[in-house]
Design brief:
The protein is mainly beta. Helix content is about 0%, strand content about 60%.
């Protein structure tokens, strides 16, 4: 996943790639949190359901902060969880990851 966070913003976009050993539908849930001050936390959640196959595909999540507190230019924490049904084994498969998003370089 691309791990960049711009300057103060009301919208954050996170992209990534995914592939599955068999064709299925995958749900991706994510939470983005950034501690701004001792008392202020910028937070947002996003969800997408996409088809997944052995060919690498892309996904995109758009985050809009809750409570009107915009994301700042510091590091934010991204928690992502994905799940899909494995029809070969007849069960759901889960994966999760936590990453730090750092500000995008100034151009």
């Amino acid at each position: 996943a691309k791990k960049e966070l711009g300057a103060v913003t009301l919208h954050v976009r996170v992209t990534g790639t995914i592939s599955c050993t068999i064709a299925t539908s995958v749900s991706i849930n994510a939470a983005l949190n950034q501690r701004l001050t001792r008392f202020a936390l910028a937070t947002a959640n996003a969800f997408v359901s996409i088809p997944c196959s052995p060919s690498t595909g892309s996904w995109e999540l758009s985050f809009t902060p809750q409570a009107g507190i915009p994301f700042g230019s510091g590091t934010a924490q991204l928690d992502v969880a994905a799940s899909g049904y494995d029809s070969y084994y007849g069960q759901f498969v889960f994966a999760s990851r936590t990453d730090a998003l750092r500000p995008a370089p100034t151009r």
